Amino acid sequence: MSSSQPSSSSPGSLLPLPPGLPRNDPPPPPNNGHAPREPSAQLSALELKLYPPLAEFIGFGGASKHVVTNCGSHRLVFKVKCSNNALFKVAPVFAFLDPGMSVDLQVVRLEGPIRKDKLLIMFKEAKPGERDAKRAFEAEGVTGKTILPLITKNMGSESAANNLLIFARSITDSC
After folding, report:
1. What's the angle, vertex CA 56, arms to CA 119 and CA 171, rounded to 5?
2. What would the pLDDT profile of 30-54 be if each residue is shown by its tens digit?
3. Is the torsion defined by CA of 67, 71, 72, 73 positive or negative?
């Protein structure tokens, strides 16, 4: 038996396919000319929590305050994107967060039509010594994301007026 032909008697060896039969190998994964990437252990060290996990508004506007917390073990930089910049204003848009630290996120809705909207909070590890959050976020790096749904409820004008009247009375009574 020659060494160029696989042996049928040796364990684990493959027999050659007869001519004309297609191979049944799975296709290789597409890599677009790049080497395959290993799963990043860095993502597990990056964790951002948002509380409360959604924002509720009424059609004629309002404000919602949230706490963004870095629950990971690395310093983070985050960026907030909104699906409707005409009606929603957000502060801060960019910020750094050290491990275990939190920052308040203010969301303000102006009066306008009701539709499904959301905030996308993207985050990644910040390099030591970085001071400009906007510039730090533009650099390449592993990015995580979390979504804050912006829920707007349609309250009839009578209901909204009644709620404002009740609120105004409670303020007057407490003075």
Report:
1. 135
2. 555 555 444 444 545 789 999 999 9
3. positive
Q: Mind listing the pLDDT tens digit for each residue in 93-137?
A: 999 999 999 999 999 999 999 999 999 999 999 988 899 999 988
Indicate the DSSP class of residue 99.
T
d(C-alpha 14, C-alpha 6), whole Å: 6
Reading the block at residue 146, the tokens are 């979390």
**Cβ burial, residue 93 (10 Å; 0-12/13-18/19+):** middle
Per the listing, tokens 């308040």 go with 104
**What domains are defined for the chain?**
43-155 (2.60.40.10)
Contact assessment for residue 100 and residue 81, using Cβ atoms and an 8 Å cutoff: no
Q: Quick one: tokens of 98?
A: 């050290």
